[in-house]
């Protein structure tokens, strides 16, 4: 079942950020979304994951209402180890350990977020989003602070996560879009408008 | 801190204490009247005489129990009230004037009022409770309100249960505020509790002993019991800090899952 937005309006400070926005995400695969800062991309992500309720219009297709999100900020709990940050969401330490290995963070599970570099924290946030059992994955600039070689190693896990569910990847990096996205959408606004790139 | 730094820190404290004892002794010699100011030696002698009497330790124990009962009650009710007033705006509007009144009313007024209302033992518990409650309420409420909304959103998106949100997000966010409130109000509680004991004079109380020392012009006893109050209050503050540190370490070691952190089997 596809995730569908129909005639969605979202106001922020009385100004429309999403105005009569309708779009359909494919059943599975990666949709890349790129556009200037402040055009409404984050508002779209927050609407899709349920943090923002549309002032009008509907969001359908999230059967269980479960969305895995890598926010623009890492949003890791600073008082928990990296392993516990993942275990909290995954419901067990074994899964956390597996994902730390996949993100090339094996051996860092006992570290606290402040002991990690920016790129390492991004990887933990990415692991949390990909590993979460969800109907949809939303990634907001997930590869910030990572070099190209490392990104290449992680692309496979992102592709795998999108094999059974839709994944919306927001990025300014054209190379990331070219490497990962099955479909690319360009954005402008506000209010947010979305049009296909190819 | 390195052990060398610790040792030199301790030495500095001992020097400071010795200087203040010398100042005290100098003041005693200057005043020249035991009735007005006892010497450190006289106070120490009275303390050693008192400390071998079983009634002294019973007095310390009963004062401790009364004041700690009020303190713990204040901690519990202040925390509950903070949760309630943050969650429910009407509760905040309802309780705010009462808490403000408690904060600005002189403690002596409450003690005298309480003496009319209840038994001597309960007066002390009630007064300490009243002193602790607003401090804990204000601090814990501030801790809850300043919890990072981005982390709360994360918890919402990843479907954390209410218990997980409380345990993993709220408790660690509020903990520093709670520790500050507890350590601040502990000292205040002891001051107010002893004042309540002086005025209400329950049996076997440090405050009652202070009152008797004043009546019989036993300045050495007065200072000896004051020293006991100061030592207990400081010792409890240190104990409380050590407990909180231990709790923090346990939380970090056990993690949120309640299991010991370390590589999964």
Structural overview:
The complex is a heterodimer of chains A (198) and B (265). With 198 residues, chain A is of the alpha/beta class. Chain A has helices spanning 41-48, 82-90, 93-102, 118-131, 148-161, 174-180; strands at 3-12, 15-25, 29-34, 56-60, 67-70, 136-140, 166-170, 183-188, 193-196. Chain A has a domain at 1-65 and 170-198: Rossmann fold (3-Layer(aba) Sandwich). In chain A, the strands form two sheets. Chain A has a six-stranded mixed sheet, with helices on both faces. In chain A, strands 2-1-4 form a three-stranded antiparallel sheet, covered by helices on one side. The mean pLDDT of chain A is 93. Chain B has one domain (56-253): Orthogonal Bundle (MetI-like fold). The radius of gyration of chain B is 23 Å and the shape is globular. Classes of the chains: A alpha/beta (198), B mainly alpha (265).
In short:
Chain A has helices at residues 41-48, 82-90, 93-102, 118-131, 148-161, 174-180, and strands spanning 3-12, 15-25, 29-34, 56-60, 67-70, 136-140, 166-170, 183-188, 193-196.
Mean pLDDT score of chain A, rounded?
A: 93
- What is the terminal-to-terminal distance of chain A? 23 Å
Average of pLDDT of chain B: 89
The CATH topology of the domain at 1-65 and 170-198 in chain A is given as Rossmann fold
Fraction of helical residues of chain A: 25-40%
Biggest sheet descriptor of chain A: 6 strands, mixed
Tell me the greatest interface. A-B, 28 and 24 residues
**Rg for CA atoms of chain B:** 23 Å
Approximate shape of chain B: globular
Strand content of chain A is 25-35%
Q: What is the domain total for the residues of chain B?
A: 1
How many helix segments of chain A?
6
Work out the helicity level of chain B: over 70%
Number of strands of chain B: 0
The tally of strands of chain A reads: 9
